[in-house]
Design goal:
This protein has helices spanning 16-27, 39-52, 67-81, 104-132, 154-174, 200-207, 216-226, 245-248; strands at 7-10, 31-34, 56-59, 86-89, 136-141, 179-186, 189-190, 214-215, 238-241. With 253 residues, the chain is of the alpha/beta class. It has one domain (7-243): NAD(P)-binding Rossmann-like Domain (Rossmann fold), CATH 3.40.50.720. The longest helix has 29 residues, at 104-132. The chain starts with 6 loop residues before the first strand and ends in a 5-residue tail after the last helix. 45% of the residues are buried.
Length: 253
């Protein structure tokens, strides 16, 4: 199995893309530390992983942008297994709003979770991976809104574009320690949240060249490759998984 005995942290994994990545990692033999801000979702997700795989999964609920929670995630992984190999910084929030009236509270919350949480989790994980002297893999979750303008998502798109620049910059810092760092930019994806909109799948199927939005499995397959040993020479890169939408970029509105 590709990820056998690897130790992985996945944030924002109570449902959707993060949960699917956790399932695939556990199926491949990884020991997964699954985080979500919602304790109930965290517990449910761990149970779901256990039902569908024979892999190891430990729930660590809490705010992924909280520095104490970040340290707890890394410490628990190392205490239990002695090392940390993979971090998927998937947690993020989307707060829609018109630019002219967007509140400071919304702006700083988006930056705290999407940027701060990712930056400091990467920092804590990289410090551990540096000590281990055998490398590791970091993966950040960007978005097509970091590439193409999207109405009412100025702050969110800005945060996602910044994550891609963070990954590029960390190549300088982390490559000497055999740590690679990449990003994925999902396009429209069918998740619990998006399918709550009855028209979502139809709208995005009509404007996506491949004829459908992504599934969480589409994103998870890409993630598993980028954090695998087969991708160790890939670093500072971003992969867009959007069925070709960014090539033509028609608006859903």
């Amino acid at each position: 199995m590709m990820h056998k005995d690897k130790v992985a942290i996945v944030t924002g994994a109570g449902q959707g893309i993060g949960l699917e990545i956790s399932k695939y990692l556990a199926t491949e033999g990884a020991h997964v530390f699954l985080n979500d801000i919602d304790p109930f979702l965290t517990e449910q997700a761990v149970e779901e992983v256990a039902k569908q795989t024979s892999g190891s999964c430990t729930g660590v609920p809490g705010d992924s942008s909280d520095l104490l929670l970040i340290q707890e995630l890394v410490s628990k992984a190392v205490e239990k297994f002695g090392h940390l190999d993979i971090v998927v910084a998937n947690a993020g929030i989307t707060l829609f709003g018109d630019f002219f009236t967007y509140s400071p509270e919304s702006f700083f919350k988006v930056m705290q979770v999407n940027l701060g949480g990712t930056f400091f989790l990467a920092q804590a994980a990289a410090q551990q991976m540096k000590k281990q002297a055998k490398g590791g893999s970091l993966l950040f979750m960007s978005s097509v809104t970091g590439h193409q303008a999207h109405k009412n998502l100025a702050a969110y798109g800005m945060s996602k574009a910044a994550l891609e620049m963070l990954a590029k910059n960390l190549v300088i810092e982390l490559s000497p320690y055999k740590i690679n760092v990449n990003t994925i930019a999902p396009g429209a994806t069918l998740t619990n949240r998006t399918t709550a909109d009855a028209d979502y799948e139809k709208i995005w199927s009509n404007i996506t060249p491949m004829g459908r939005p992504a599934t969480v499995a589409d994103i998870a397959h890409t993630a598993l490759f980028l954090v695998s040993d087969q991708a160790k020479h890939i670093t500072g890169q971003n992969i867009i998984v959007d069925g070709g939408w960014t090539c033509i970029s028609p608006s859903p509105f």
